[in-house]
Design goal:
Elements: H1 3-10, E1 32-34, E2 39-44, E3 47-51, E4 55-63, E5 69-78, E6 83-89, E7 97-104, E8 109-115, E9 127-136, E10 147-149, E11 160-163, E12 172-176, E13 179-183, E14 191-197, E15 202-207, E16 215-222, E17 233-238, E18 242-245, E19 254-261, E20 271-275, E21 290-293, E22 299-304, E23 317-323, E24 336-337, E25 350-355, E26 363-371, E27 385-387, H2 402-410, H3 430-439
Parallel strand pairs: 2-12, 3-13
Antiparallel strand pairs: 1-12, 2-4, 4-9, 5-8, 5-10, 5-11, 6-9, 7-8, 14-15, 15-18, 16-17, 16-19, 19-20, 21-22, 22-25, 23-24, 23-26, 26-27
Bound molecules: calcium ion (4 copies).
Length: about 450
């Protein structure tokens, strides 16, 4: 202790203490040195694993063994190549005055001596002397305690606990050293990190490292990959191997980075993937299509609209086809496509259109596929058929008889191409009558 400290101590003692420097550090392989039969010093906590380069607090504590104490001197040795003592914090110390506070980072020595007026003498089983704020500089896996009190029972040369007996009696009998492990190495990145785009979602999966692993934090960004564990939205922070990121916007690229962490929360460099969710759900198959012949040249189609996604929403377009041979899913694309298909209405709406340009007295098959705005095409509809009317069946009653003949006569020599102009040559005449005769009955 210094002369300055002596003067401080004199305020607590009526006698003069003769205090010397201790130059021989005391290293222990054991947690406790000395015994606990009298007052002791200890660390709280006295062991732990901490992150490299992160500051962690260790309290220096005193147990006065039921006696009144006025001064505590805690002298501590450590390896300055492995640890840096960032600061000594005396906030909430049970002692109110300070005689000595020294961090010798060259030799790895901490000296903290604190006192209290006799009137307020301390009697505690667990009183804080000071807090050491420590930084582990590199990986440390100690085989022995690495924060050790300088302590010699009965000696006033090093750590002391001074009894309030007016005599300056040192009553320290033992000390609990500290053993601190430093983990400065992050775990490996997750492997096989994959992103599978879906409809408004991205399914992530990965494989965790097999050692030094406590969990994985996954962040999401748009525009670029997250650059750190604080850059982006944290979507996952646990120790599983998959996650379904939902509620996303289709056709937007999402960038993900997975940082694995160890128990002291060293983060790995990060593994990254990107994916762009998109609509993968086609409109439903139309099952309500019906075909009704209107004339020899036209058939009306009726159906109920399906949606963008199954029966939800609104599809984008219809592909409507017809053929005089049966349509199947396999030959749909080779059937004749109508050019004037309606724009789809919202799912559940009534849809109708008239297919024209057909020929008379022929069976036509019809089918529809609906497509959404992402180009997903639904399955083929039901496939109804309709028989167009004969060209001479002017009243569309499926028989060619005197009624049709009467209609033909009523248009005789008409040049406005009514239906009675069966061959549509611009005149209702004997040629049309000949066609009617050929279809008679
Ligand atoms: Ca580690
Ligand atoms: Ca869709
Ligand atoms: Ca008829
Ligand atoms: Ca004609």
């Amino acid at each position: 202790m210094t002369k300055k400290m002596k003067s401080v101590l004199k305020t607590f003692f009526s006698i003069t203490l003769t205090i010397l420097f201790s130059t021989i550090p005391y290293f222990s392989q054991a947690t406790w040195v000395g015994n606990q039969n009298n007052a002791t010093l200890f660390f709280s906590p006295d062991a732990g694993t901490y992150k490299g380069n992160a500051t962690f607090p260790i309290d220096i504590m005193v147990n006065t063994h039921g006696q009144y104490v006025v001064v505590v001197a805690a002298y501590i040795n450590y390896n300055p190549a492995l640890f840096q003592v960032v600061s000594i914090d005396t906030t909430s110390s049970v002692f109110t005055t300070e005689a000595e506070k020294l961090i010798d980072s060259t030799n790895g020595v901490i000296k903290i001596t604190r006192g209290i007026p006799t009137a307020n003498h301390v009697n505690t089983a667990s009183g804080k002397v000071a807090t050491l704020n420590i930084q582990g500089l590199t990986n440390v896996t100690p085989s022995a305690d690495n924060f050790t009190f300088q302590f010699t029972a009965g000696s006033t040369l090093d750590s002391n606990i001074i009894l309030d007996d007016g005599l300056g009696t040192d009553i320290i009998s033992g000390a609990d050293n500290g053993r601190f492990t430093i983990d400065a190495t992050p775990p490996a990145n997750v492997s096989s990190f994959t992103a599978t785009a879906g409809d408004s979602q991205v399914v992530l999966s990965w494989t965790n490292p097999t050692s030094d692993f406590a969990g994985v934090k996954i962040l999401r960004k748009t525009g670029s990959y997250p650059a750190s564990v604080t850059d982006g939205t944290v979507i996952y922070d646990s120790n599983g191997t998959s996650y379904n990121d939902t509620g996303l916007t289709n056709n937007t690229a999402y960038y993900y980075k997975a940082y694995s962490r160890d128990v002291v929360v060293n983060y790995s460099s990060g593994a990254q993937v990107t994916a762009t969710p998109h609509d993968v759900t086609p409109p439903a198959s139309i099952g309500t299509l019906s075909a009704t012949a209107l004339t020899s040249k036209s058939v009306r189609l009726d159906w109920t609209a399906v949606g963008d996604d199954g029966s939800t929403g609104t599809a984008t377009n219809y592909d409507i086809r017809y053929s005089t041979t049966a349509i199947t899913a396999a030959n749909f694309s080779s059937a004749t496509q109508v050019s004037d298909a309606p724009t789809p209405k919202i799912s559940g709406s009534v849809e109708t259109m008239t297919v024209t340009g057909l020929t008379g007295n022929a069976t036509y098959y019809f089918a529809i596929k609906a497509t959404d705005d992402a180009g997903n095409t639904g399955a083929i509809s039901n496939i109804p058929s309709a028989l167009s009317y004969k060209t001479a069946d002017l009243n569309n009653d499926r028989i060619i008889n005197s009624v049709d003949f009467g209609i033909l006569m009523s248009y005789w020599n008409n040049t406005t191409r009514p239906l009675a102009d069966i061959n549509q040559d611009g005149i209702v005449n004997s040629v049309d009558f000949g066609i009617m005769m050929s279809q008679w009955g």
